[in-house]
């Protein structure tokens, strides 16, 4: 597993080693010992999620507040997405900073987004399937969101014209970064 740093020190890219032979290929998509060594602490994954999206679908920016804050280990198993993590911890030196990484079935990259970050992704291919592990269970009451095109965050979403972005109603109506309830 290749571990690659990003512009945000706690957000990491994991690139599995792929073993190919005449039958096809094999990879470890998750190895607790390798993962926890890279992250530096124990990470209790308790839920796995899987979603399917059409081109231009943008899910996010989402998070859950404590005590249900979620770390997420995310990847695309079909198609291509552009994935974003935003540091929303007021006490952090990188508060309000974001990183974007392309995740695809082809590059097999995974992104570790710790608790305290908002997360979103847009589908760049015709369709995508997206799978992720989370460190806390889904809890509707703890859900928070920030609007995807917040001017203060100024996330440089790629390729898709704004008019073609496909949003859930709740995401279109999400609060600005300035108004959202975030992490203290
Ligand atoms: C996230 C989630 C949703 N649901 C339900 C609620 C709702 O009726 C339906 C669809 O939910 P959503 O519209 O919130 O799905 P979606 O927009 O895909 O939400 C996800 O977006 C990405 C960016 C994340 O980071 C995730 O943590 C999660 O917030 O699924 C669950 O039952 N369990 C869950 O863990």
UniProtKB/TrEMBL annotation:
Q: Name one GO cellular component term.
A: cytosol
What top-level branch of life does the organism fall under? Bacteria
Positions of the record's site feature: Participates in a stacking interaction with the thymidine ring of dTDP-4-oxo-6-deoxyglucose: 138
Q: What is its EC number?
A: 5.1.3.13
Q: Name one GO biological process term.
A: dTDP-rhamnose biosynthetic process
Q: In which pathway does it act?
A: Carbohydrate biosynthesis; dTDP-L-rhamnose biosynthesis
What keywords would UniProt list here?
Isomerase
Matching InterPro entries? RmlC-like, RmlC-like_jellyroll, RmlC_Cupin_sf
Gene3D superfamilies named among the record's database cross-references: Jelly Rolls
Give a Pfam family name: dTDP_sugar_isom
**SUPFAM superfamilies named among the record's database cross-references:** RmlC-like cupins
| Isomerase as UniProt keyword | yes
Q: Which GO terms describe its molecular function?
A: dTDP-4-dehydrorhamnose 3,5-epimerase activity
Q: Which reaction equation describes what this protein catalyses?
A: dTDP-4-dehydro-6-deoxy-alpha-D-glucose = dTDP-4-dehydro-beta-L-rhamnose
Q: Which residues form the active site?
A: 62 (proton acceptor), 132 (proton donor)
Q: Which family does it belong to?
A: Belongs to the dTDP-4-dehydrorhamnose 3,5-epimerase family.
Biological function? Catalyzes the epimerization of the C3' and C5'positions of dTDP-6-deoxy-D-xylo-4-hexulose, forming dTDP-6-deoxy-L-lyxo-4-hexulose.
- NCBIfam families per UniProt: rmlC
Subunit structure as annotated in this protein's UniProt entry: Homodimer.
Q: Which PANTHER family match?
A: DTDP-6-DEOXY-D-GLUCOSE-3,5 EPIMERASE, THYMIDINE DIPHOSPHO-4-KETO-RHAMNOSE 3,5-EPIMERASE
Tell me the protein's name.
Answer: dTDP-4-dehydrorhamnose 3,5-epimerase
The species this protein was found in: Noviherbaspirillum sedimenti
């Amino acid at each position: 597993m290749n571990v690659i740093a990003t512009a945000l020190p706690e957000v990491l890219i994991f690139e599995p080693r792929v073993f190919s032979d005449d039958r096809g290929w094999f990879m470890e998509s998750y190895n607790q010992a390798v993962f926890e060594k890279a992250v530096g602490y124990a990470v209790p994954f308790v839920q796995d999620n899987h979603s399917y999206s059409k081109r231009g679908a943008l899910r996010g920016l989402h998070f859950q507040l404590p005590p249900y804050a979620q770390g997420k280990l995310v990847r695309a198993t079909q198609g291509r997405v552009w994935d974003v993590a935003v540091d929303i911890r007021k006490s952090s030196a990188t508060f309000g900073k974001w990183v974007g990484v392309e995740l695809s079935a082809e590059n097999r990259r995974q992104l570790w987004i710790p608790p305290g970050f908002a997360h979103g992704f847009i589908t760049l291919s015709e369709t995508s399937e997206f799978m992720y592990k989370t460190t806390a269970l889904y809890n509707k009451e703890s859900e928070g969101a920030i609007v995807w095109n917040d001017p203060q965050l100024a996330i440089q979403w790629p390729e898709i014209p704004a008019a073609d972005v496909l949003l859930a109603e709740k995401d279109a109506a999400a609060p600005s970064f300035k108004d959202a309830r975030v992490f203290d």
